[in-house]
Design goal:
This protein is an alpha+beta fold. Helices cover about 25% and strands about 25% of the residues. The chain contains 13 helices and 18 strands. The longest helix has 14 residues. It starts with about 45 loop residues before the first strand and ends in a 16-residue tail after the last helix.
């Protein structure tokens, strides 16, 4: 039986769980008729934007399907600026949210209250001797990759260039070097943050260790607003970026079966994705791409070794195989594509698989993809390697151990008139897989449809996360539609 149930396919579609709420009106305190006028941040610490101000609309959610707009934006430059904004919101009983990259899938980096934006806190300091880097919470992944590779280092992270380091890390953070180097959160050494009372504090192995545990995979916006991270970074140089593509008319269920077998046995140095796209009666595309790193950054990866590793896939049908020996940074840029320069309409869902699929499961999946009423993309993201050697309870991120892959369902469109049809299509595909998968989901692919979201995201780590929430935010001040709930 599946762990979770989804909304029925004909359930009404809402842009997000917050979207219909109008901007909040501050509650007058001590005779002050306009509390928003009391939101003052010194120029050295930031500034305040109101609707209509230049730059305000640039900070709205990336997903056009979500429509939540804040009453004001505190654009902070320092932790003190964040602290002042948090204290104001508490004083006037205003809901708040943290905003960095703004790529939350359901738009929860905006809210009808106060948005606290840290995007300008984007400093990068590298210590090559200790192989560490201090990153402001507003850093974007593309900028981090460029700055680190200038000194031949890398941090395992996602591939989308404008995504923020903060949300990625706090939700776990898998990417195409994670089988080699671990998740982004596995490389976190320390975090500086502002708590629910506006106090600044550090969380690491020695200071506030329970909070440090929770910040590594417990989701963004739950325990405070992080202003700076310190990470372990890794030497890198040359890699092989590769792609495999099968002709559109040669899809075989054995491709999925073979890819899953390879995911179970591949060395840490091989990271790879499987793409299966389809809908409206067909499988329109199947392909595999990834990155092959050397065991040591001083070595040069071998195309022949890679070809041997991929032989089970390359023997299926007559696929094209395109390997390129390039720099790590060039590979990152290829996977980033155009970097999501524009806001778009989209909906995504996710599943985790803890075992290889049976032929029955593969058939159910491919049948559901083919029969989708809208063209839909699915991405199998291989786990294993360093990801799975960390214990499920060692960090708040629980999808370890026997987790084989994360599966993302994704649909993107260009007009609001297509929203209901496309959201219904992705729900139908997700529902079709419920008899076959346990119902676990990736919090960074946050999904407003999930009824028991906390169990889906955090599994057995949920009670400890709730205890941390009780300790550091007992009034549930950092609250949104899918935040970590206080213990009952």
């Amino acid at each position: 039986m599946p762990l979770l149930s989804a909304l029925p396919a004909d359930a009404p579609v809402l842009p997000s769980l917050q979207s219909d709420a109008p901007p909040q009106t501050p509650v007058a305190v001590a005779g002050i008729s306009d509390p928003l006028a009391e939101l003052v941040i010194p120029a050295a610490d930031g500034n305040v934007l109101r609707p209509g101000d230049p730059g305000f609309n640039d900070l709205l959610p990336f997903n056009l399907r979500t429509t939540s707009r804040p009453m004001a934006i505190a654009q902070c430059l320092t932790a003190n600026g964040v602290s002042l904004a948090v204290q104001w919101a508490r004083r006037y009983q205003i809901a708040l949210c943290a905003h960095a990259g703004g790529h939350c899938y359901e738009g929860f980096s905006s809210c009808p209250g106060l948005m606290i934006d840290v995007r300008k806190m984007n400093g990068i300091t590298i210590d090559a001797a200790s192989q560490t880097a201090r990153l402001g919470a507003g850093c974007l992944l593309g900028d981090v990759a460029v700055a680190l590779f200038a000194q031949n280092f890398a941090l395992p992270a996602g591939s989308c260039r404008p995504v923020g380091i903060a949300g990625l890390t706090l939700g776990g953070g898998h990417g195409l070097s994670s089988r080699k180097f671990g998740l982004t959160c596995d490389n976190l050494i320390s975090a500086h943050l502002v708590d629910a009372d506006g106090n600044e504090l550090d969380a690491n192995a020695n200071e506030n260790p329970d909070l440090f545990w929770a910040l590594r995979g417990g989701g963004g916006g739950n325990f405070g607003i992080v202003t700076e991270f310190t990470f372990q970074i890794h030497p890198v140089d040359r890699v092989i970026e590769f792609s495999i593509a099968w002709p559109d008319d040669s899809f075989r269920t054995s491709t999925i079966r073979t890819w899953q077998s390879l995911a179970q046995s591949a060395p840490d140095e091989l990271s790879f994705l499987l793409h299966v796209n389809g809908g409206q009666g067909q499988i329109s595309h199947i392909g595999c791409n990834g990155m092959y790193l050397p065991r040591d950054a001083s070595e040069t990866p071998s195309v022949d070794d890679l070809r041997t590793l991929l032989a089970p896939l390359l023997s299926l049908g007559n696929p094209s195989f395109t390997p390129k020996e390039i720099s790590y940074l060039d590979a990152v840029k290829i996977f980033a594509g155009d970097g999501d320069p524009n806001r778009v309409y989209f909906k995504a869902k996710s599943d985790y698989s803890v075992e290889a699929w049976s032929d029955e499961t593969i058939h159910a999946f491919t049948s559901a993809v083919r029969s989708s009423s809208s063209p839909i993309a699915t991405i199998f993201e291989a786990y294993g390697g360093s990801i799975n050697r960390v214990g499920e309870a060692d960090t708040a991120f629980p999808h370890r151990g026997n987790t084989l892959f994360c599966l993302q369902y994704y649909l993107q469109w260009s007009s609001s008139s297509s929203t209901n049809r496309n959201v219904a299509a992705i729900r139908a595909l997700y529902d079709a897989m419920r008899p076959y998968l346990p119902g676990y989901s990736y919090v960074n692919y946050i999904d407003a449809d999930l009824q028991d979201y906390a169990q889906a995201y955090y599994k057995d780590n949920l009670p400890r996360l709730q205890a941390v929430k009780q300790q550091y935010d007992p009034d549930n001040f950092f609250h949104f539609a899918q935040s970590v709930p206080l213990p009952v």
